[in-house]
Write a structure and sequence with these properties.
The chain has 257 residues and is an alpha/beta fold. The protein has 14 helices and 6 strands.
Length: 257
């Protein structure tokens, strides 16, 4: 009971639906826990490790970790938190980026007990009929209610139609993987909830959701990101890790701990 209480609270921002997840954990049921990441960069960093460490806690309790590599969604680009449409990545870029992900994830997870998936395996060959079926679960008004889209509308910035499909694709991943729980950063809440919606539409039991705070980068302002150069990579040499960590603003020290 103490382990479960800490699992649901330590470093956690929110749990949806907490009472349901707590009941499952107390019952001893072994859960399928999904964590998805789009390989838009070539290295995992300690911002990713915030979630990886939580996944490791679940591993210790015997739950199954489903590590989803967004080999298709990375080519589209997640619009979350962006004021402009992401640039499309080539398949070659994506393959190059994921090259070292398993080795880096193994620094935190018991990698031999992790199941890896790549979502191009089911998304790239979807028929138009299947896509229509998935999109019927959502309305346009639901999409444009998102803060980032509202911000773009106010600033008269463009919104590409394909950006509306991103949460549908991420949600459909949960249908395919039959996830019981999905863990992600707080900024991903809308996308994680899409998984619940689609699982209900496809007659599956909806996944619970656990969100964790976004870690700011070494600049203390923007979220940690390879593209912004404010990251500490899991593969950085120790001396470089130390130097980057010592450069963070004082008000981030407690959060980093």
């Amino acid at each position: 009971m103490k382990e479960i209480k800490e699992l649901l609270s330590r470093g956690v921002s929110d749990v949806i639906v907490r009472k349901d997840l707590e009941k499952k954990l107390n019952s001893g049921e072994k859960l399928r826990i999904k964590f998805g990441i789009d390989p838009t960069g070539s290295a995992l960093h300690i911002g990713h490790a915030v979630i990886l460490r939580k996944l490791r806690e679940f591993q210790r309790l015997g739950h199954e970790i489903l590590f989803l590599l967004g080999t298709f969604t990375a080519q589209i680009g997640d619009p979350t938190g962006k004021t402009e449409t992401r640039k499309v990545l080539s398949r070659e870029d994506v393959r190059k980026n994921i090259r070292d992900y398993k080795v880096e994830a193994a620094k935190v997870l018991d990698i031999d007990k992790v199941r890896f998936y790549e979502n191009h395996e089911w998304l790239q060959d979807m028929s138009f009929t299947e896509l229509i079926k998935v999109s019927q679960s959502f309305t346009v008004s639901q999409m444009i209610e998102r803060d980032m889209f509202q911000d773009r509308i106010k600033r008269e910035l463009p919104i590409s139609l394909h950006e509306f499909f991103y949460p549908l694709m991420q949600g459909y991943d949960s249908v395919i993987l039959r996830a019981d729980l999905e863990i992600g950063a707080t900024e991903q809440t809308f996308n994680l909830l899409a998984g619940r919606t689609l699982q209900k539409s496809f007659g599956e039991k909806p996944q619970d959701i656990m969100t964790m705070p976004v870690l700011e980068g070494t600049d203390g302002k923007e979220k940690m990101s390879k593209s912004l150069g404010n990251f500490i990579a899991l593969s950085d040499p120790p001396r470089e890790m130390f130097g980057k960590t010592m450069s963070i603003p004082d008000d981030l020290i407690i959060k980093y701990f």
